[in-house]
Write a structure and sequence with these properties.
Number of helices: 5
Largest sheet: none
Order of helices and strands: HHHHH
Distance between the termini: 54 Å
Structural class: mainly alpha
Shape: flat
Number of strands: 0
Helix content: over 70%
Strand content: under 5%
């Protein structure tokens, strides 16, 4: 029984490593996207379409960066000890605002306001 448990743990760790490797490969595929966009835009002659594509790329980059900031902000809040004040515990006082989506959107809103010169209270 003890040996079977050890073998099971080894299999689980190998599966987890394989999962990490597959995620890394998927991430490496995402690095090809800028080159693909450049290939598509090389044949375009319209300056307005090229400008629209450049704006869309900037918006996508800002959105992705803010998504990771918001997720990190929620993750940090989960690590705060229960005896310390935290923005998520403040939200828990209001029963209507305890959904995960509301927390994510609040964190996303906060991270978006940090990109502007005039931030606001969230």
């Amino acid at each position: 029984s003890g040996l079977a448990d050890v073998i099971g743990i080894v299999r689980i760790s190998k599966t987890l490593r394989l999962g990490r490797l597959l995620r890394l490969i998927r991430l490496l595929r995402a690095m090809k996207v800028p080159a693909m966009i450049n290939e598509l835009t090389d044949g375009l002659q319209s300056e307005s379409i090229l400008t629209a594509i450049a704006i869309a790329k900037s918006i996508a980059l800002i959105t992705i960066v803010n998504h990771f900031i918001a997720c990190g902000w929620i993750g940090l809040a989960a690590w705060v000890p229960s005896d310390m004040p935290c923005w998520t515990r403040h939200m828990d006082d209001n029963a209507e605002q305890t959904s995960g989506w509301f927390r994510y959107l609040t964190a996303l809103h906060w991270s978006l306001t940090q990109f502007t010169p005039a931030s606001m209270e969230v």
